[in-house]
């Protein structure tokens, strides 16, 4: 796996590239790179054995030019403040690119939640959100789930905030359970967006998605739903993998059957009747038309980029391609549909949930899905047009086009508001 830069340095390097393409003055760099506010919180939690443990949590509010800060909260033992800041900057660009009325924010707690009891997890979540209650709000900052947080954690956040503020403030978090203002379509949203982005890319590069051969790395929430929707669109999912390995069938896999086996046994590798079993890394190098990395970051690097045969890579995961890997692929003419476009389905569905909560209304599952599909198509079209007309394709990939559109939108809002 490729070496890892400080993610904040990486995020700043991407910002610099976009500002160079746009020809903006140097002073804009700091004005955009520095987060508006980073809150560090000491979290004292009573453990089940009666002892007290101290955890550290953060919320980075990167930019609010376009609207309230929006972005998830992750619980992870390796989370650092710089990682949270970088992720909040990426949220600014993702929300901007999607044309949502949101700025960017991200939160994190340095903790391994798998080592906490349910009661300890609840107390930690409530302490975190209570400490944050002065800094979040329906029109201020709206958290959501991320790595190792889920609708239950959002339910505790919502409840804690509503107790403190004395009301029912549904719109203060998204990704909530359906019973308390969440949307049924949330679970499919990121994978559906990935499939729509892949279909759009295939129509430009392959002449259509029908019959396209696809390999998917990761068979969790994103990988499974991306595979399911892509096969419904007529693509052939020839390989999928999880952390235990991959499976391959040249005729295409029956995705729902594979999912049943994964649920029953814990891994796709136990699915019978496949042509061959693969190592996780082999899935990336198969002779396919489309590759969907949907597991973890930094899997496509300078070490394997030459061996990748797909003509299109659709980034379901966040940050699966390193800068060095991307340079090789760009020279080879491989199209990379970047994460901030390909996996924006989650935050788009969050926006639909938030609007619905604020109106006190309801929306059908199909209506929510249709809105998402339309939004991802529009995003793809605008990035593609920019990529074709304004980007030097020998030097930059589609990622630069997406970042440049996103950064420019934020700059224009900052100028209109008199910040620049
Ligand atoms: P998940 O935990 O549901 O699934 C992850 C999958 O990846 C699992 O099947 C796991 O076995 C597999 N995996 C882990 N390491 C692997 C490896 N080395 N090789 C192959 N497979 C491996 O997570 P998810 O929600 O599907 O998220 C996947 C990625 O998508 C992450 O990068 C996440 O940040 C990103 N993402 C998720 C959402 C969302 O709404 N869930 C939104 C945007 C981005």
Question: Which terms would index this structure?
Answer:
420 residues; alpha/beta; Rossmann fold; 7-stranded mixed beta sheet; 5-stranded mixed beta sheet; 17% strand; globular; binds nicotinamide-adenine-dinucleotide
Describe, in plain words, how this protein is organized in 3D.
This protein has helices at residues 7-22, 27-33, 81-97, 118-132, 151-165, 186-205, 221-232, 255-265, 323-331, 339-342, 345-359, 365-390, 398-416, and strands at residues 37-46, 52-63, 69-76, 103-110, 141-145, 213-217, 236-242, 245-248, 276-278, 290-293, 312-314, 335-337. It has 420 residues and is of the alpha/beta class. The strands form 2 sheets. Strands 9-8-7-6-10-11-12 form a 7-stranded mixed beta sheet, sandwiched between helices. β6 (213-217), α7 and β7 form a beta-alpha-beta unit. α1 packs across α2, α6 (186-205) packs across α7 (221-232) and α6 (186-205) crosses α11. It is globular and about 55 Å long. 51% of the residues are buried. Bound molecules: nicotinamide-adenine-dinucleotide. Nicotinamide-adenine-dinucleotide is lined by residues 190, 217-223, 241-243, 280, 294-296, 316-318, 343, 346.
């Amino acid at each position: 796996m490729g070496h890892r830069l400080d993610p904040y340095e990486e995020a700043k390097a991407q910002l610099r590239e976009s500002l160079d393409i746009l020809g903006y003055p140097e002073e804009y760099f700091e004005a955009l790179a520095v987060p508006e506010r980073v809150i560090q919180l000491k979290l004292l939690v009573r453990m089940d054995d009666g002892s007290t443990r101290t955890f550290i949590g953060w919320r980075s509010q990167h930019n609010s030019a376009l609207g309230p800060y929006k972005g998830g909260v992750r619980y992870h033992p390796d989370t650092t403040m710089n990682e949270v800041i970088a992720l909040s900057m990426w949220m600014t660009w993702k929300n901007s690119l999607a044309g949502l009325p949101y700025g960017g924010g991200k939160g994190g707690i340095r903790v391994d939640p798998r080592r906490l009891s349910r009661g300890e997890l609840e107390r930690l979540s409530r302490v975190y959100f209570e400490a944050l209650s002065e800094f979040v709000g329906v029109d201020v900052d709206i958290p959501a789930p991320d790595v190792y947080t889920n609708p239950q954690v959002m339910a505790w956040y919502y409840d804690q905030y509503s107790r403190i503020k004395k009301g029912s403030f549904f719109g203060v978090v998204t990704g909530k359970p359906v019973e308390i203002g969440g949307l049924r379509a949330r679970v499919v949203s990121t994978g559906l967006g990935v499939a729509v982005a892949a279909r759009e890319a295939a129509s430009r590069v392959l002449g259509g998605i029908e019959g396209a051969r696809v390999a998917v790395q990761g068979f969790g929430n994103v990988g499974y739903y991306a595979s399911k929707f892509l096969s419904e669109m007529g693509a052939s999912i020839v390989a999928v993998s999880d952390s235990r390995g991959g499976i391959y069938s040249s005729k295409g896999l029956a995705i729902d059957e594979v999912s049943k086996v994964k649920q029953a046994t814990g891994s796709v590798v136990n699915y019978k009747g496949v042509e061959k079993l693969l190592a996780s890394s082999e899935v990336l190098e198969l002779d396919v038309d489309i590759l969907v990395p949907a597991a973890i970051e930094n899997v496509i690097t300078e070490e394997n980029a030459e061996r990748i045969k797909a003509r299109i890579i659709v980034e379901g995961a966040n940050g699966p391609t390193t800068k060095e890997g991307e340079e090789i692929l760009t020279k080879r003419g491989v199209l990379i549909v970047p994460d901030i476009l390909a996996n924006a389905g989650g935050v788009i569905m969050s926006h639909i949930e938030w609007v619905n909560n604020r109106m006190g209304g309801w929306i059908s599952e199909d209506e929510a899905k249709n809105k998402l599909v339309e939004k991802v198509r529009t995003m793809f079209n605008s990035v593609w047009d920019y990529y074709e007309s304004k980007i030097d394709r020998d030097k930059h990939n589609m990622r630069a086009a997406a970042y440049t559109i996103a950064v420019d939108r934020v700059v224009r809002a900052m100028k209109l508001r008199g910040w620049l």
